[in-house]
Amino acid sequence: MILRTTVETPLGPFTIFSGDAGVVHTHFGDDGPGDGAELDAGENRRLTAPIRREVEAYFRGALRAFDTPADLSDLGNGFARRALETVRTIPYGQMWTYGDVAAAAGVARGGRAAGSALARCPIELFVPCHRVVRAGPGLGSYGRHDERRRFLLRLEGALSDGSRRP
User: Fold this and answer.
1) pTM for the complete prediction?
2) Which residue intervals of the chain are DSSP H helices?
3) C-alpha to C-alpha distances, 24 to 20, 70, 97, 154, 158, nearest whole angstrom
4) Distance CA 53, CA 47 (A)
């Protein structure tokens, strides 16, 4: 069964879809996949309360690592999954390059492949892709959500002015 909950954040509504093995999809805003399980609203809220509390604590600056797992099983066992699992290990407030992620995931020269895997990641925050930046100047692209990345990096203290690395 997939449960759905939405948390109000400084970046707007954040919707989380979770199953027995953890979070399977997230998105900011009103667009996204269809509804989760049809449960009584009270029961759904009770079951999703721990996830909601974690997201709220993260945006208050009181949570540095999510206990709720990200369920990446739909990605199989290839490089994309290894790259996203590697991203989950990047400490709060730190930034790695795509090359760093690729090397840690076992492909020394796989920075582009890591970038492709991160671009298709269905789970924001719980897989902190915003912490992965380009090797050269600037942060690189974050889809159409560069301001979201800057906000999250500033929240974590990894970015002081939103445009340059510390």
Assistant:
1) 0.88
2) 41-60, 79-87, 98-104, 111-119, 146-155
3) 10, 6, 25, 26, 26
4) 12
List 83, 129, 158, 159, catalytic entry: 129
- Note if 129 is an active site residue: yes
pLDDT single digits (tens) 78-133: 999 999 999 999 999 999 999 999 999 999 999 999 999 999 999 999 999 999 99
- Partnered with residue 4 across adjacent β-strands are 17
pLDDT in tens, 11-69: 999 999 999 999 999 999 865 555 555 555 566 778 899 999 999 999 999 999 999 99
Q: Are 27 and 49 in contact (CB under 8 A)?
A: no
